[in-house]
Structures are given as C-alpha cells and as structure tokens.
Specification:
The structure is a single chain. By secondary structure, the protein is an alpha+beta fold. The protein has a single domain, classed as tt1808, chain A, CATH 3.90.1570. It has five helices and 13 strands. A hairpin with a 6-residue loop joins strand 5 and strand 6. The longest helix is centred in the first third of the chain and has 18 residues. It is globular.
Length: 199
C-alpha cells in the first residue's frame, strides 16, 4: 500500500474517532495522518498467501494472524499502522476491537512507493512494540524475503532468504518454502517481460 500524507494533525483519540467515519484506511504517525491507497495484485496475492498459511499453521493455538485491515498501535496514544500481515499471541489482543498492541510478527510486502519507508521510518517505529520478535519484508518484484529478528542481546539481525530457500519464522515456529508465498503470483518484473514480448 502507498501512504499519501493528507497534511493535517490530530490527537490519537481524535484520529481513532475520525478514522471510524472514513471510507478508506489511514495510518497515524506523530500527529499526522496518511491515506492508504491500494497496492498491486502481486502485493495482495503475496500477503494473502502468507496470511492463509499462517492462519492454518496457528489454528488451535493462542496466536492469530490478520491482514491489512487490522490496525496495530504502540499504545492508545498512537502510533497506528496497518501492516500487510500481523500475528499476535498476547491474551489482551484476543479481546481487541480497534487495534492490536502486542504483535510478535509484522510483515510488509514491499512496493516501489513504500520500500524506503518500510525499511526505514516504519521499521524504526515498529521497534517500539516491546512484544515484536520478527519484522519481515517481502519483495513483490522478485522472489526474496528479509527477516529482521531480535536476538537475545537485544539487537536486530537480518536473515535474508532467496529462491529455493526454506524460511523459518521463529516467533511463531513456522517453517515453509519461500515459493509458498509466491504461489500463483505474477511478479512485476515478469509482467514487464511479458509486455515486451507481446509488444
């Protein structure tokens, strides 16, 4: 999804009340709201593939996987974001209505318009979640996944995965081939090659 700033400022409570009346989703960062526009078909398919696999894996456990309609908030005072996929295993989040506060896994599918933001400012803000154990970035233009994992010394370590690799998300003990999340996905680069050949 692409964030476009509307350049007006609200308190966290004003934001939560105001957003309920809107037709589209907004993220909230430092008093400013950002309209969330639609992503590409590959972006949506990748997120759905992973969320579906996680939902199946977590069935019967205390954890739940949700997609981009689920908001996460560091506290009731904001920051508020809509990750592409999020998992929480916290009992308090099982009662949540408006937003989750204790995610253990957050996933963003990268697009050209949001990649720098997802890697930089957004990851910086996501690190405010004391419960967060893994932050995953998935490429929507080529096969690739990067997992940032919090180690036992409190540092975030990068674990990159490429085509043919087996991915292990330790926060939810989920192991799967990377190809699983690209099932039936036409990548942007492949689509461009098809257009060139057809033209």
């Amino acid at each position: 999804m692409v964030a476009i700033s509307d350049r007006f400022y609200l308190t966290p409570q004003e934001f939560l009340e105001w957003e309920e009346l809107q037709e589209i989703k907004y993220e909230y960062l430092d008093g400013e709201v950002f309209a969330m526009t639609g992503g590409s078909i590959p972006h949506a398919a990748i997120a759905l593939n992973l969320a579906s696999a996680l939902k199946s894996h977590l069935r019967g456990s205390k954890c739940s996987a949700l997609m981009s309609d689920a908001k996460v908030g560091v506290s009731e005072n904001g920051l508020f974001f809509y990750p592409d996929v999020v998992v929480s295993c916290h009992p308090q989040d099982r009662q949540a209505i408006k937003f989750l506060q204790f995610p253990c896994l957050i996933v963003e599918v990268l697009s050209q318009g949001t990649e720098a933001y997802d890697r930089g400012k957004k990851f910086e803000k996501y690190r405010n979640f004391s419960s967060l154990q893994e932050y995953v970035l998935i490429d929507s233009q080529k096969i690739g996944l990067e997992c940032f994992r919090l180690n036992d010394r409190g540092f975030w370590e990068l674990h990159p995965f490429v085509e043919g690799d087996e991915v292990h998300l330790t926060s939810v003990d989920f192991q799967f081939p990377l190809s699983l999340i690209y099932e039936n996905v036409v990548l942007v680069g492949e689509n461009e090659e098809f257009k060139d050949q057809a033209g």
